[in-house]
Every structure is written in structure tokens, then in C-alpha cells.
Amino acid sequence: MRRTAGALSVLLGVGIAIAVGTPAIRSALAPRSSEDLVCDKPVHDFGSMTLEEGANRSHTFVLRNNSRRAVKIGKIEETCGCTSTSTTSQTVPPGGSTEIRAAIDWSAKPGQQEVQLDVQTSSPKNPHVLLYIRGFVKVPAILSPAILGFGVVAPGKQETRFVELVPGTDPRPFTILKVDIPAQWVEMLRVDADGRPTGQPLEGDPGRFRIVVMAPKTYGKEQAKIVFHTDLPRYPERVLTVSAEFAGSIEVVPTAVLFQGDLTQKIVRQVRVSSVRGGKPGVEIIASTPDMYSIEGIEAATPSRDIWTVTIACRGKEAKPAIARSVLRITIGAEQRDISMIAVPV
Q1: d(CA 198, CA 141)
Q2: pLDDT tens for residues 12-47?
Q3: Which among 74, 186, 217, 255 would be 20 to 30 A from 57, CA to CA?
Q4: Is 215 part of a structural domain of the chain?
Q5: Residue 224 β-bridge partners
Q6: Residue 173 has what DSSP assignment?
Q7: Which residue(s) pair with 132 in the sheet?
Q8: Measuring CA to CA, how many Å separate 60 from each of 245, 253, 285?
Q9: Tens of pLDDT along 75-115?
Q10: Which CATH number does the domain housing residue 101 bear?
């Protein structure tokens, strides 16, 4: 009996050892990750590259299924239209893997780049697998700054800023062939390092430039795009965006009017209007409920009659009027300003 029991024990131990050695059993007994579908290297960095090198980049991510059930790959969303993706298999079996290939074109995207891939899966534990691709695209020319905001410019005044178009992180010799300036209120000059005009044309070598905004006497918000045309084959244009708000000849204080309170009672507000043109302003109320508002008076606030006080009132006809928005339009000569008004019942 002892020999029989011993023999059975040896055979049983050998059988268990053989069973444990099979792939299926090893997979079943292996420790599980907290996530079903994982990527050991979810971030890939290409490092630095030229524009030409950035035109055709690709990387393949490997995703492993650590669960005991198949996981399906759904939609893959990219944060950049410069990226396209494909996968070798939409269904990943238990213990299996799939590859996701990302192809990228960064030839028109200079500077630091990062693309996120959101791989959507059927896994309840890991419905989104996030992958990242990074790189730095060097450029042969840099326009700095590329955006100029001049803020509010008073009528007849000038404001000045400076920009440089110089060799970039992938420096190559280049020539400025032409500069397009589409706005009459912008003037541009080539200057030296100290900001003094050189008298040289805008076309020619890279360099420093002075941008001057000359405000008209009319109110408005303007934006212009100045285009530098170069002889760089993959980088032929650099665009400078210039924006400004022109105060015009009409100034209104405050710039917005609030009627807040019991709107069944009359609420009165005043605005002060001044203009370098002089003259009595024309006042008009533009509202969806015009019967709520009235112009109570327009009176000169100074003997020179260049400053005027406009009195306006608001009163709702309903017991509980709703919030109402309207516009107070002020006109002097050919120029006008629109002031927002809002009535809020309390």
C-alpha cells in the first residue's frame, strides 16, 4: 500500500507539473494587471527633426490583452488632423496583442508637437487607452512675435511695435521676396538693432522691422495679416497678425448700462458722451421690447457742448418681466457707437 500511494503521489505531481507548464494554464495562473489592455510604452518621442523629416513619420504601438476575455478595439481619435492610424486586429484575444500604427505629417507644423491617440475599447476596466507621440520640428526661419496686439488706439495717435524675421532652429540662408500689407492703417519699415530706420526696402535679407499703427477717427476693431514671402521651398510664407481697436472720436462712459431692481418701477441711468468733433449726439434705442425703454433727455454738460449727458429709463409692463437686452446707439456725424444695455429683474 505504501508503494502504491507513493507511486500515485509521484504520478500526480508529474501531471500537475505538466499541466501547469502548458500556455493556457500559465495564462490562467499569471498575475493580472489592473487594466485589461495595456501598452508598455505609451509615449514615443521622435526628438528633433527638420521640416522635410517631419513630412513622413510613423510609429507602431503594441497593446497587450492581460485579461481572460477578448477585447475589441473601437474608434481611435487623434488630437491632430496631421495623424492617421490603423490597427492589425480589431479583436485582441486573451493573452494576445495588436499593433496600432500612427502616421504623422508635421511638415507644416513647426516647433514642439504632441499628438494624443485615444484608443477606445470594449474593456470595462480600461475603456480608453491613451497613447502619445511627441517631437520638435525645426524651422529655417522664425517670425517673432507672430501676433501683435496694439490694444485701444486713440484717434489720430500712433502706436509702434517691432518684429524680427530671422534664421530659425534649422538655419538656412533665405531672402524676403515680397511683403504684403493689406491695411492702410499699418505702416512697416526696416530698422536696425536700435530701432532706427535703415532706409532699405522691406525685401532682401532677414532682419528687424518696425510696425506702426495709425488710428483713424472712426471707431472699429481691425485685424490685418502681413505676409512675408520668402524663397524657402517648404517655408515660403510667414504671416504676422496685427490687431487694434480704434477708439474713434466718440467716447461713452460707461460702456455698458445695467438696469437692476424692480422693473415694474421706473429705473433711470445716465451716460456721458464726448467727441472731438463736437455737436449734439443722436440717440436711438434698439431693443426687442422697445416699450420698456425711453430716452428722458440729452443735455450739454459743458459750455463748449463737446460733452453731453444722455438720460435713459427702463420700466417693464409685466408683473414679472424677464431679463431684457438692448442697445443704445449714439451717432455723431458719420460715426456711431453701440452701448449694450441689460435689464435684470430682482
Answers
A1: 22
A2: 444 444 444 444 444 443 434 456 899 999 999 999
A3: 74
A4: yes
A5: 242
A6: -
A7: 43, 116
A8: 49, 61, 63
A9: 999 999 999 999 999 999 999 999 999 999 998 888 999 99
A10: 2.60.40.10
